[in-house]
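Below: protein 1.
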Amino acid sequence: MGKLLLMIFLGVAIWWLWRKLQATKADAALPKAERPPELMARCAHCGVNQPRSECVEGAGQAVYCSDAHRREAESGSAGE
């Protein structure tokens, strides 16, 4: 009975170590992509804040969260 428990314990320990090594290899293989902080901009139509790179530029200095909001603001209909 003692030998059986020892074999089970060794099997579980080997399996656990193998899993830890596989996880470490997977973490090391993935590049650590860090995005630099980005300026935020407020939509001139609805006021939502979002990263400047995702904004749609309109006439003048105005920025919008989507093309639909740009079109609405530039056409003069504010969704009333």
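Below: protein 2.
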Amino acid sequence: MSTSRTSLGAPSGTDGGRGGPAPFRTATLGNGLRVVVAPQPQLHRTHVALWGRVGSRFETREDNGISHFLEHMIYRGTRRVPSAHQVNLAFERLGGSLFASTQVDHGIFSLTLPPESLDEACALFGEVLSEPAFLDIDIERGIVLEEILEDLDDDGHQVDADNLSRALIYGSHPLGFTITGGQSHVRAFDEGMLRRHHARHYTASNLVLAFAGAVDEERALRLAERDFGRLPRGERITAAAPEFAQKKPRLKIIDNVSSQTELRVCLRALAEGHPLRPALDVLMRIVDDGMSTRLYHRLCDARGLCYDVSAGYDGYEDDGVVDVAAGVQHARAALVTREILAMFEELAREGPTSDELATARRRIAWDTRSLVDSVEETAAFYAAGLLFDRFSTPEQHAAELTAVDAAGVREAAQYLARPERLDVVAVGLLEDGEDDRVRAAVDGWRPGATS
């Protein structure tokens, strides 16, 4: 086997109580495929996952949605296993559970199974991913078209608040595309287009293979070479960075007959590799890391304005978005918008309390220790780090976060809390002047800490 190997040690405290550091190994196969193996011998499951640089941000306006459609088609089978049912049956007879997902900038295919099934299942996994036969395209086309309908109203208009917010933020840049693409695109995809997309993206230069759980390092590397060592090397896929030319807040209101208004309050954020990234992580913990944290307490517990509200960060190699999502009564859309913006303004002005920071640090430490309990999360942690060239150990990651102080969190909040970074989407029935009140809340936001 032609590999170059680096053996690294993960932190003590992530070993499931075995008394020493949990080892992992990275390797590069002869074709350039990067592999990471993270044994967790205290567990009774094995996980293998293939992560790839594929997704809507690597598409064009003409072929938007093809990465997602290809994801569906890959599990449709090979010439030897010629149907989706036979593929699923073959893995499930081995105790396996298949998973696949297409995101904006990456795709994931994974398999969780009993350790004794790994040899046979990995061979089939490699075959399915390397040699799709593109069978039953029209059947899968119908399934994907049904999926797209979930985001449209009765007139065929886009009403998904997440899709609308990204389109508002990024415009014609691929980061503003939907992952599923449009109905006309899906109807036009054919075998030739799918094969070309597969040949371009499913290459060793654009993939990372991860093993975790009850798996031996040497055995995993042998299986990697056997089942994925013949992938073509290919060329690493790149994408153009989005511009940031926004000068003032933006608002998009979409009329939609529904019981609530779906609200997205978005702040254009920083890229994954930005020096403030650890501070942003801690800020997001303080904003929304449970029902006692600032966002839920402010809107739900203290004011009763929402049943549920959440905040998240979508980070990319060259950009990022922090958004708050809430389903609210139509007549409360402006009030909830103001409360969300006031929360970020306060954090930019005052930073977190000492109790908030201490709680965030404790939860970071706990999450780091508990990583070893999940084969899926362990594999995802290492695979994402390799795929996006930001590899670290859980210990290194936790140390970065726990080193963030209140001033760092405040600086991250100040980075976000700027009118020119604000984009808001409201999908619902904003009547009796509520649309004007939302517009006033958005246009009138002038955080004093960043003026």
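Residues 210 and 383 are 6 Å apart (CA to CA).
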